[in-house]
Amino acid sequence: MTSLRKLENGVLTVGTFAAAALWIFPLYWAFITSMRSEDRVVSKEAGVLPDEFNPAAYIDILWNTNLVSWYINSIGTAVIITFTVVVSGMMCAYAISQMRFPGRRILYGVVLASFMVPSQALVVTQFILMNDMGLINTWAGIILPQLIVPVVIIVYKQFFDAVPKEMREAVVLDGGGDYTLLFKVYLPLNWGITTALGIITFIMAWNQFLWPFLAVTTENKMTIPVGITQVNDAFGVFYARLMSVALLGAMPVAIAYLIFQKKVTEAVMISSGVKG
Amino acid sequence: MRLNNRIAYAFLAPYLLIFATFWLWPIISSFLISFQNTRVNPWRFAPSMNWGRLVGDPAFYNALYNTLIILVIQVPVMIALATVMAVFLNSPLLKARPLYRFAFFAPVVVGEVAYAAVFRLMFSADFGIINKIIGTVGLSPVSWFDNGTAAMALVIMAVTWRWAGYNAIIILAGLQSIPGDVYEAATLDRVGKVQQFFHITLPLLKPIILFCIVLSVIGTMQLFAEPFLITNRGGPGGATETLGLLLYRQGFTSLNFGYASAIAYTIAALAVAISLLNLFFGREAK
To answer: B245-262, pLDDT tens digit by residue?
Structure first.
């Protein structure tokens, strides 16, 4: 029995370690490439181990690209998207779950259906719409189509459905309205869900590529993922520089993830409670 | 009663306004645009133009074929991998679990554009580390971007790498909701670990795995970043062109909005149909 347990333990540890090494390798590779000189990157001798600690690529891209503007655009748009998605989603879910009004069931059906439609199927008409509204190359243009995240509504609705009715009745008896109920009573209760949804929404917004890529054409209006593709164009194939931009661009979300790892995991997990 | 309705609509208003403008209206208007000739100014009603073209367009069938190939190979491989990852991560015997979870989830955090750049570098035919490793084993180097089959394999590997960890976390949530005494009873009855997995774990995980499949189907139907960024806009010669990429090419390279709208509708309809089929068969068998 103990030897079997040892074997199980061995398979588990070796297997997980090998898979994790494989999964982390591209990041490791990006890092050691960013620290090499461009000549070294494309040479035959460049091996698997780090051999140079040359910050030239980092210095070069900080001076010669719009990285700072891209940071500002990414932070600004991602923060606004996160805040709006969470607040509007929570309010909508509250109404669907706690209030009675004509069209309630149909509305929730539409929310569930919108979850199944790939967002990319909408980009053509969204682009025409943005163009007509004159919002190409603006933050509003980047933000607006990203505000529709049906999962947030579905998760919140399940939370509100599960809150005991007595709680609502007690607040109403004390003269509290729906505003008090949602923001003073339920929000503190679901703070865990709110931060988890907020962090995952932020990460997804930060990494969004296709829509900002379509909505922005001037370089200083770009977000980081769109900017990275410009580095490629501007420098040809200078990989050390490309890797350093990629790593610097991922840094803020990577740090946020490391701090809130539990919350992010929780967010992914609660979204799976969603049933179609 | 009236007042209550008004309050309810006030709570709904922020989301509904955005939803109506940037989701509902685009869905309706792309339906209308798909019946128009958008290559003349002003656009003209031409009911069969775009849909007629779609039915006979070899580029559409190529993209549909590529997308379905990815769907049929990549999704099962990734879900299987994710399930194994989740079972490992869930084992109390495993040490340093947060570290492993970080490794598996890192691709989602880093983002598609950054990691696409790394993949292009790693798989470069001349100086890429993958070909160097292949060389040391004594095999001949693979031209990942010039060979259609190799390029497709690369896209499948890249997508799997990006999403396996995410799905593993979802499946992990499912595993953690299975009460431990089920396994204790099985162990007392001398049921082996592997048998436990196939006879207890998998059946209980079914709804969660189904959810992962639906997510992956929706993702694959709109797959864009990997073939666009890693294999040179669907190259070589359209070998990795997906429906998402064809939509982009028609809409934003050829600026043929009418035809792109017809493609968009096809993508959406396929995604919804396959998702519903999955859910339906999942329920039936339960």
So the answer is: 999 999 999 999 999 999
Intervals of chain A under pLDDT 50? 275-276
Residue B18 has its nearest CB partner, among A147, A250, A271, at: A147
What pLDDT digit, counting tens, does each position of B259-285 carry? Answer: 999 999 999 999 989 888 887 877 655
Q: Are A26 and B122 within 8 A, CB to CB?
A: yes
Domain assignment of residue A164, given as a range: 63-271
Nearest CA in chain B to A148: B19
Per-residue pLDDT of B47-62, as tens digits, reads: 888 999 999 999 999 9
Q: What is the pTM of this model?
A: 0.91
User: Which residue of A9, A11, A14, A16 is the best one to mutate when testing the B interface, meaning the one whose CB has the most B CBs within 10 A?
Assistant: A16
Query: Does residue A37 form part of some domain?
Result: yes
Taking the C-alpha atoms of residue A179 and residue A185, their distance in angstroms, rounded to an integer, is 9
Is A50 contained in some domain?
A: yes
Torsion of CA A131, A135, A138, A144, to 10 degrees: -100
User: Which CATH number do you get for residue A212?
Assistant: 1.10.3720.10
As a whole number of angstroms, the distance between CA B116 and CA B260 comes to 25
Name the residue type at position B237: G
| Percentage of chain B modeled with pLDDT above 90 | 49
Question: How far B7 CA lies from chain A's nearest CA (Å)?
Answer: 8
CB contact under 8 A, A228 and B113: yes
Rounded to whole angstroms, the Cα distance separating A57 from A199 reads: 30
Residue B230 distance to chain A (closest CA, Å): 11
The reply to whether residue A120 touches residue B109, judged by beta carbons under 8 angstroms, is: no
Size of interface A-B (CB pairs under 8 A): 276
Residue that has been written with the tokens 């939370």 in this structure? A159
Per-domain residue ranges for chain B? 52-285
> In what helix (H) or strand (E) does residue A36 lie, and over which residues does it extend?
none
pLDDT of residue A150: 92
Residue A142 belongs to some domain of the structure: yes
- The tokens for B26 are 């685009």
Task: Give the percent of chain B with pLDDT over 70.
Answer: 98
Q: Are residues B170 and A272, on separate chains, in Cβ contact within 8 Å?
A: yes
Number of independent structural domains in chain A: 2
* Nearest-CB residue to B23 (from A8, A122, A232): A122
ipTM value for the complex: 0.89
| pLDDT for position B286 | 46
**Do B267 and A121 make contact, defined as CB atoms within 8 angstroms?**
yes
Reported as a single tens digit per residue, the pLDDT across B131-144 is 888 888 888 888 99
Q: Cβ–Cβ contacts within 10 Å for residue B182, how many?
A: 13
In a domain, A276, yes or no: no
Q: Which of B214, B212, B125 is nearest to B164 (CA)?
A: B212
Tokens representing B240 are 């990795």
| pLDDT at res. A272 | 73
> Domain B52-285 in CATH: superfamily?
MetI-like (1.10.3720.10)
C-beta atoms of A254 and B33 within 8 A: no
CB contact under 8 A, B111 and A178: no
